Amino acid sequence: MSTNQERRAEARQRLREQMEAQARREKQLKIVAASVVVAVLLGIVGVVAWINYDRKRAEEYAANWLTCEYPADTETPEPLDPAEFEDQGDEVVAEVEEFNAQVETVNENRRDAEPPSGDQARRGIAELTITTDRGEIPLTLDRSDAPCNVASFVHLAEQRYFDDTECHRLTVAEETTGPEEVPGLSVLQCGDPTGTGLSGPGYSVVDEPPAPDTLELAADGSGAAIYPRGTVAMAKSQAPDSAGSQFFLVYEDSALPPEYTVMGTVGEPGLEVLDDIAETGVKSDDPTDRDNQVPRRPVTIETVVVDEQSGLPDR
Questions:
Q1: Are 234 and 205 in contact (CB under 8 A)?
Q2: 273: left (phi over 0), alpha (psi -120 to 50) or beta
Q3: Does the structural domain 75-310 have CATH classification 2.40.100.10?
Q4: With 0-12 CB in 10 A as exposed, 13-18 as middle and 19+ as buried, what is 115?
Q5: Considering Cα of 9, then 12, then 16, then 18, what sign does the dihedral take?
Q6: What is the C-alpha separation between 43 and 246, in angstroms, rounded?
Q7: Where is this region: Disordered (predicted)?
Q8: Which of 46, 139, 153, 194 is most exposed, with minimal Cβ within 10 Å?
């Protein structure tokens, strides 16, 4: 039998073992708790980091890309009844009949095209060449100035939309004199496959007017802007966001309301071609004659080719 002293020693040993076990459990609990806290903190840090990264990516994407709207434009001009204009004289009736002939031409020769899809780049340069029967006209288009319009123009060129079409309008401005004289309109307008100026690709493009202070204002205080020689811009009606496929090339400084989208510039060899076309003149010198803005010698676009694109952002 064990003595009292031995029993007390055994009791003290069991107590020490119990206290050590309790200490180990408390230590393990503290380690587990600390691990949980660290895991939670790491999770929070990770979530915050992911949110910041995702937000940064979204901001970076938005800085480089945008969604362009290209609404369907299915409206076509309707013919008029000449009989309704007989009381206005033979000249008006003749104009109505000419308009009806143009409407028929539109219906027979209209070309529809698909608009660009997906988001469009906010920056990047597109080099194109318009080959006409009068010579080549190189263009440099800058997406940063008009991303939606440049994207549409490039897309139409890639679809061969402009090939074998005529430039239907040529304006020849009278010479101006004096320091405050406002220049007239000196442009070659193209881009309508029907050659009437009444048609487009079946969709429209939002206006992207020049930023303030990018164009010089006319000296007469009218609010008109000077579109300088060599400008490539989109043509439109008086209605907002009515551009489509028609565009104009400025061969002499021209005064216009600052609402026409500027896409880029014409290269020097192209300006020489435009000067030659302008020198040939229009069919009629009478400003009241419809032929006053029709090239005397037809200008045919044979092809429009996208030569190179550069500076596009990565997706």
A1: yes
A2: alpha
A3: yes
A4: buried
A5: positive
A6: 56
A7: 278-315
A8: 46
Residue 171 tokens read as: 């304006």
In single-letter form, the type of residue at position 9 comes to: A
